[in-house]
């Protein structure tokens, strides 16, 4: 496989918690940034980050809140994560800019597609925060949207497991890991790797999705080099 030139990396906020139950683990944050920088040369990296380590609009703590208001709080959480990741990347020598889909005054510049594209062309990384800027849409959907807008060759979804399984491998020891799947199979089997809106966007515009374990040493670099890692989802493939 050819080496990738532009990717959209979707990071969950929970991935930054490490073994904790809340917030950002500085060791995990630094390790994540190092993996991105190590894989970065020659690759335009756009990143969408979640906020579940701080607040999620569909979490139990938001159960009695107005959904739109809870989602707004979740969007603000992604901004904090984006700023933290950007700071680590800059400190490691990868110039990075943060853009927010939500207007937050002078804290973070607003989303600007042309500026983001120019930054990628100049070798910078771009971290997109605040999802789509609208309630009722997940950061997975925001990631699919940004992948299309940035002209990404592929969307990478970083998780804590090494691909997509037939069931939760932590609860089902006999769960089978798929190497390749079609979008239709993901939806039909309700595998839950991303919400249906996010999958439908990628399917319509034929952007492949690769789900992988971000904690596996060198995983991101191997993917950028064109190696087979995790599970690949794309149109018209047989289930493997």
Commentary on this structure:
This protein is of the alpha/beta class. Helices cover 33% and strands 18% of the residues. The chain contains 7 helices and 10 strands. Strand 3 (96-100), helix 3 and strand 4 (125-129) form a beta-alpha-beta unit. The chain starts with 5 loop residues before the first strand and ends in a 7-residue tail after the last strand. The mean pLDDT is 91.
Number of strands: 10
User: How much of the polypeptide forms β-strand, as a percent range?
Assistant: 15-25%
- What is the residue-averaged pLDDT? 91
Indicate the CATH architecture: 3-Layer(aba) Sandwich
Tally of separate helices: 7
The end-to-end span amounts to 18 Å
Instruction: Name the helix and strand elements from N-terminus to C-terminus, one letter apiece.
Output: EHEHEHEHEEEEHHEHE
Corresponding CATH superfamily: Acetylglutamate kinase-like
Largest sheet: 8 strands, mixed
What would you call the structural class? alpha/beta
